[in-house]
């Protein structure tokens, strides 16, 4: 199969023919429907050889993956061929600590480095990807796998920040999303679904602001024209992990 691979550290990725993967015990092969492009890919490409230790290139890029189960290894019973799934990219998690067992593998207590499909292991920029454990597969039902793929990183990153801010975003308050590129548009959509707040999108590009309004923003502001009176009196909501995750109205 043809895959888009990082052949050496700090070099331009290339297309390369590689063998189709087949699962061993406990493993699953997923037929890729969508594999997102992410800014992290540029970081992966820029890392020098010393960073990779035992997972040095070559490997196939792509860490935002969804598709359909193609083949299962012996002992796999939770999924079967044809199931639509998204791939949890937290492949360096231990699977045993209380964070992993509560479904928060990204906060694994024993994860020493970021390793994921496309980050030290073969990823989704190929027709098929080998998933090392069935616990990394998330059933998505009738959700289109192409649309689901970026939820595994871009979506969950945005949701995690908004989730921490939710206690302070009450109905009638104002939530400001500063920057409505890929992650910012997810933020607008999550806020629309999860809160009763007035959503204000801020960006320097009118095309992005137009998209933000289409996806649920109540108002939009070009950043060079931003004034507090345009969005209401704003206070920032501090969080333990991120410092500032969101904003809300404090009244007039």
Walk me through the structure.
With 252 residues, the chain is α+β, with helices and mostly antiparallel strands. The chain has 2 domains: 2-149, Quinone Oxidoreductase, Chain A, domain 1; 157-249, NAD(P)-binding Rossmann-like Domain (Rossmann fold, 3-Layer(aba) Sandwich), CATH 3.40.50.720. The chain contains 8 helices and 15 strands. It has a 5-stranded antiparallel beta sheet with strand order 9-3-5-6-10. The chain has a 3-stranded antiparallel beta sheet with strand order 2-1-4, with no helix packed on it. A 3-stranded parallel beta sheet has the order 11-12-13, with helices on one face. Strand 11 (174-178), helix 6 (182-194) and strand 12 form a beta-alpha-beta unit. Helix 5 (154-165) packs across helix 6 (182-194). The longest helix has 13 residues, at 182-194. The chain starts with a strand and ends with a strand. Mean pLDDT is 88; it is low at 233-252.
Encode the helix/strand succession as letters.
Answer: EEEHHEEEHEEEEHHEHEHEHEE
| CATH H level, superfamily name of the largest domain | Medium-chain alcohol dehydrogenases, catalytic domain
Helical content stands at: 10-25%
What is the CATH architecture assignment of the largest domain?
A: Alpha-Beta Complex
Largest sheet: 5 strands, antiparallel
Q: Proportion of β residues? A: 25-35%
Q: How many individual domains?
A: 2
Number of helices: 8
Low-confidence stretches: 233-252
Derived structural class: alpha+beta
| 3D shape | globular
Mean pLDDT: 88
Determine the CATH topology of the largest domain: Quinone Oxidoreductase, Chain A, domain 1
**Cα-to-Cα separation, first versus last residue:** 61 Å
Number of distinct beta strands: 15
